[in-house]
Amino acid sequence: MSKDVILIIEDDSDIQELLSHAMSKEGWKLLQVKTGEDGLKALKSKKVNCILLDIMLPGIDGLRVLRKIKEIEQCKNIPVIMTTAKGEETDIVTGLELGADDYVVKPYSPKVLIARIRAGLRRNEEGGSVSSATTWQQGELKLDTARHQAFNGNQKLDLFATEFALLKHFLSNPEIVFSRNQIINAIHGPDYPVTDRSVDVQILGLRKKLGKAGDMIETIRGIGYRFRLSE
């Protein structure tokens, strides 16, 4: 049975109880706190595999908590799923740009949320696993999944977990055109409910961090994206 630890930062007691009941058969250990401050304290003392983070919290809000989570070295690659009633596109884009891996709008189905947690856990495990190929390099870009490191020349890249997975997908499949749906399937698994806009935002964030090398991720109008090899 899975020993993964899920940290739930949510101030609504009813939702806490609902999630606890829904996840009781998953084998996960749940850490439940009601404020961002308590969530950050828990992260400093306990090993966590996934975080569910509400935005509208007492004290510091969820977006500020997300910023602080991504500043903690051992937490940079932990999947963070925002769970909130704020469902406007601008809210979703803000969360993704700050490093959230996913964004679930209330009211949500517990089954859907559990599926997204599973996908986040699976993606994180695959990112750190050793396979027959653990390194990829195209031009100045190099990625090492065994060490979970990426470089542009001699500069180490500070990538969020989803950005790392995207770069791995592109480096290992150069010159192939992928639709947004194919990219979603490759990164999150099949039938994962993520919008095209979410993919665009995360690729935009990756491009920015790659600097000039970001131009190698080419937009194919009306289709999706391709990683173009430098000439």
How would you characterize the overall build of this protein?
Mean pLDDT is 85; it is low at 128-132. Strand 4, helix 4 (89-97) and strand 5 (102-105) form a beta-alpha-beta unit. The protein is globular and about 55 Å long. The chain has helices spanning 13-22, 36-45, 62-71, 89-97, 110-127, 161-171, 180-188, 196-210; strands spanning 5-9, 29-33, 50-53, 80-84, 102-105, 135-138, 141-144, 149-152, 155-156, 177-179, 217-220, 224-227. A five-stranded parallel β-sheet has the order 2-1-3-4-5, with helices on both faces. It has a four-stranded antiparallel β-sheet with strand order 6-7-8-9, with helices on one face. The chain has eight helices and twelve strands. It is an alpha/beta fold and 231 residues long. Helix 2 (36-45) packs parallel to helix 3 and helix 6 packs across helix 8 (196-210). Helix content is 40%, strand content 21%.
What separation lies between the terminal Cα atoms?
49 Å
Number of helices: 8
Helical fraction: 25-40%
Q: What characteristic shape results from the CA principal axes? A: globular
Which band does the percent of strand residues land in?
Answer: 15-25%
Keywords:
single chain; 231 residues; alpha/beta; five-stranded parallel sheet; four-stranded antiparallel sheet
Task: Map the helices and strands.
Elements: E1 5-9, H1 13-22, E2 29-33, H2 36-45, E3 50-53, H3 62-71, E4 80-84, H4 89-97, E5 102-105, H5 110-127, E6 135-138, E7 141-144, E8 149-152, E9 155-156, H6 161-171, E10 177-179, H7 180-188, H8 196-210, E11 217-220, E12 224-227
Parallel strand pairs: 1-2, 1-3, 3-4, 4-5
Antiparallel strand pairs: 6-7, 7-8, 8-9, 10-12, 11-12
Helix pairs in contact: 2-3, 4-8, 6-8
